[in-house]
Design brief:
Order of helices and strands: HEEEHEHHHEEEHHHHEEHE
Bound molecules: alpha-D-galactopyranose
Number of domains: 2
Helix content: 25-40%
CATH class of the largest domain: Alpha Beta
Number of helices: 10
Distance between the termini: 28 Å
Shape: globular
Structural class: alpha+beta
Largest sheet: 6 strands, mixed
Length: 331
């Protein structure tokens, strides 16, 4: 993908780029709507990429198939105190398809502008850039996964301390991302409102220390507490190979996002239901912010083709990948 961005740069500007880099999209296995409240999340970087090639210029300029790109690229540049650049973008990651194309664009730009940056610092800079570019007060999960994911693994992130570890992901499980066809635009969604409600319900308590009984009658808090417990159990089940329970946890996460956190839609419920009935499916849930977007399903690899064929919505089968700032040797 990186070389495609370089080719596009030459074609667009009739000059050679000075830098280029790529970053992967992400899926979130479990741990939804808890990152901004200091919870646990379990995303993975996946093998679909956004690549950027660039060179210093008099002012910011971008050639890309997606119009929104310039705001993101420029915001990363501003956060990293880089001079203006002209850039070209290529991607094989669908924009708005639930794989965090915006995070991948931000992280690729950061990797191109400052390849020596620490991965966590890169994720924090990109989170800040996304917040500035969109006005949506997103958490750290998407940028962190795109920066620090690792092939063959999911990343368990403690969003309070930003400590992280890698959890092996089985070779024979396919990650299916199903497009609901309902576009979500976080800037025009209740994302900030839901986030503010959740953070207010938590108050000054530490989410990862709370038990279900602490939620009282507060549904936003109940979702965050039970979701954090599901992340812990999901990690244990991945390590123990307890597949049936993995699927149940996905389904329970969906129900909690639908009933307690109220970020699902009738269409997402329908797609998740159809996915669960398709061959080889362990479980399915809405993925990401909700209000439209995509559904994640885990599927026995041997049945991935039959699974995709059984659904009327578009299915992307993806595999874990290395993040743009992944280092070997870290555990
Ligand atoms: C979006 C945000 C993330 C996270 C999810 C919900 O993807 O960018 O930070 O809050 O929604 O889990």
């Amino acid at each position: 993908m990186k070389s495609r961005a370089e080719v596009r740069f030459r074609a667009e500007y009739d000059a050679a780029p000075v830098w280029s880099a790529q970053a992967p999209g992400r899926v979130n296995l479990i741990g939804e709507h808890v990152d901004y409240a200091g919870g646990l999340v379990l995303p993975a970087a996946v093998d679909r990429y956004v690549a950027v090639a660039g060179a210093p210029a008099a002012e910011w300029e971008l050639r890309s198939d997606s119009e929104a790109g310039l705001r993101y690229v420029q915001a990363v540049g501003v956060v990293l105190a880089a001079p203006p650049q002209r850039c070209a973008v290529e991607a094989d990651l669908p924009v708005g398809g639930g794989l965090s194309s915006s995070a991948a664009l931000l992280v690729a730009t950061a990797a191109g502008l400052e390849p020596g940056l620490d991965g966590k610092d890169a994720a924090l800079a990109c989170q800040k850039a996304e917040q500035q570019a969109t006005g949506v007060r997103v958490g750290i999960m998407d940028q962190f996964a795109s920066a620090l994911g690792r092939v063959g693994h999911a990343v368990l992130i403690n969003c309070l301390s930003l400590a992280y570890s890698y959890v092996p992901f089985p070779d024979d499980l396919a990650i299916a991302v199903i497009d609901s066809g309902q576009r979500h635009d976080l800037a025009n969604s209740p994302y900030n409102a839901r986030r503010d409600g959740a953070v207010a319900a938590l108050g000054d308590r530490v989410l990862i220390n709370l038990k279900p009984a602490d939620a009282g009658d507060e549904p936003l808090l109940r979702h965050m507490i039970t979701e954090t417990a599901r992340v812990r159990e999901f990690v244990d089940c991945l390590r123990a190979g307890q597949r049936k329970r993995l699927g149940q946890l996905l389904n329970e996460s969906h129900a909690s996002l639908r009933d307690d956190f109220q970020v699902s839609t009738a269409r997402l419920d329908e797609v998740a239901q159809a996915a669960r009935a398709a061959p080889g499916c362990l479980g399915a849930r809405l993925m990401g912010a909700g209000f439209g977007g995509s559904v994640l399903a885990l599927v026995e690899s041997a049945q991935a083709t039959a699974f995709s064929a059984a659904l009327s919505a578009p299915v992307l089968i993806c595999h874990t990948a290395d993040g743009a700032f992944a280092q070997t040797g870290v555990t």
